[in-house]
Design goal:
The chain has 414 residues and is α+β, with helices and mostly antiparallel strands. Helices cover 28% and strands 33% of the residues. It has four helices and 24 strands. β14 and β15 form a beta hairpin. The termini are far apart. Belongs to the membrane fusion protein (MFP) (TC 8.A.1) family.
């Protein structure tokens, strides 16, 4: 037994003496977390910076140089609108119900042409009454005139009899008094007939006022009334119209631009200009400064300038937006006109020692083109080759921009 007990004691483990296992290492965990963080940061950087690889740029159209354009440099550019110096909203002179309207938008009318008619029932009644009053006044005058003829004959007869002392002087004087009274009545009746005639003419004018005529020749730009509506020359509120339509004299079209106070000194009367309509950017219209309005806008710090259009065309209509370039001098007759196209000077850059421009293509990709430039045209440059009218070029392209790169259009791109 003792031997067995001793053996069992030898076999018993001493827990206090058994070394504890080493704690698990966290180095691998930190390495894994670092790798995951690097991956996440790389993804975020790709998401945030991937879209920024395409630079943001501004663009401008390539504009053809018209055959009528001059090579004179522009000293100032300004924006404005086409306006009509002669424009009228036509209305009736009296309040009434519209009977018929004879105009439509776009119709050409001549001076004095009937545009509309009002219901003339009241004017007709007034004219009928005035006609009756004229007839009555003339009848009264004729009656007094007949009485006066008899009274004058009686007075002459009694004058002879009183000289022969066959009648008393009192009878003669009574006949003379009656004759003079009838003369006064006839004068009053004639004046009444004249007044009645004046009233008839006024009634005729009132009837004519129900007919609306064109004050001058022009084009109808607005039709404001329909048959059955009430029109009035005074703004009475409610549903009452104040006009029949609007007529514009297209021969009176001109341009009004607002020039900043700081640059108004560059503008002079009769100064040649070049006008470009926003609707037709390839069409250059010669013009001339008419006048500088001697008043400034305090809020905008601008001065209004009137510009004449030297070419009239049906495509030019009021309120069109325009760009006006004030030129140093007008082109001389017979001088060579510049060829090619014009672009803002900022679109021309130097690449590999040569002039180039970047043309915007499909999917916002740019194409680098070698260009041959000509004269300076104000803030623009003449391009003789390499670009075509209607294309779009990049303004102030970055130095890193290369052929085939993609770009993003800025919010203010042209």
């Amino acid at each position: 037994m003792n031997a067995s007990a001793e053996l069992l004691k030898e076999l018993r483990l001493e827990r206090s003496k058994t070394p504890a296992p080493p704690p698990p290492s966290r180095r691998g965990l930190w390495i894994g977390l670092a790798v995951a963080a690097a991956v996440v940061l790389a993804v975020l950087a790709w998401l945030l910076l991937g879209g920024e690889k395409a630079p943001e740029v501004r663009t401008a159209p390539v504009v053809a140089i018209a055959s009528g354009g001059g090579a004179s440099a522009s000293v100032l550019d300004a924006s404005g609108y086409v306006v009509a110096r002669r424009m009228a909203t036509v209305s009736a002179k009296v309040t009434g119900r519209v009977k018929e309207v004879l105009i439509e938008e776009g119709m050409r009318v001549e001076e004095g042409q009937v545009l509309a008619r009002l219901d003339p029932i009241d004017a007709d009644a007034q004219r009928t009454l005035a006609t009756s009053q004229v007839a009555a006044a003339h009848s009264q005058a004729d009656s007094v005139r007949a009485q006066l003829v008899d009274a004058e004959a009686n007075a002459r007869r009694l004058a002879q009899l009183v000289e022969q002392k066959l009648v008393s002087r009192a009878q003669y004087e009574q006949a003379v008094a009656q004759r003079d009274a009838l003369r006064a009545q006839l004068s009053a009746a004639q004046r009444n007939a004249q007044v009645a005639g004046d009233q008839l003419r006024i009634a005729d004018h009132a009837l004519d006022n129900t007919i609306v005529r064109a004050p001058f020749s022009g084009i109808v730009t607005a039709k404001a009334a329909q048959p059955g509506e009430i029109v009035s020359p005074l703004a009475t509120g409610g549903f009452t119209r104040t006009g029949i339509g609007t007529i514009v004299d297209m021969e009176s079209l001109e341009v009004e631009v607002e020039v900043g106070e700081s640059y108004i000194g560059r503008v002079q009367p009769r100064m040649p200009v070049e006008i470009v309509l926003n609707a037709y950017p390839d069409w250059r219209i010669p013009g001339e400064v008419i006048a500088i309005i001697p008043a400034a806008d305090r809020g905008k710090a601008t001065v209004k300038v009137r510009v004449a259009l030297k070419q009239k065309d049906a495509r030019i209509v009021p309120d069109m937006g325009v760009r006006v370039s004030f030129l140093e001098s007008a082109p001389e007759p017979g001088e060579d006109k510049p060829q090619g196209v014009r672009v803002p000077a900022g679109a021309i850059v130097q690449r590999d020692g040569a002039e180039a421009a970047f043309v915007l293509g499909g999917e916002d990709e740019v194409e680098q083109r070698a260009v041959k430039t000509g004269i300076a045209m104000g803030k623009d440059r003449q391009v003789l080759s390499g670009l075509a009218a209607g294309e779009t070029v990049v303004l102030d392209p970055p130095e890193t921009l290369a052929d085939g790169d993609r770009v993003r259009l800025a919010g203010g791109a042209n």
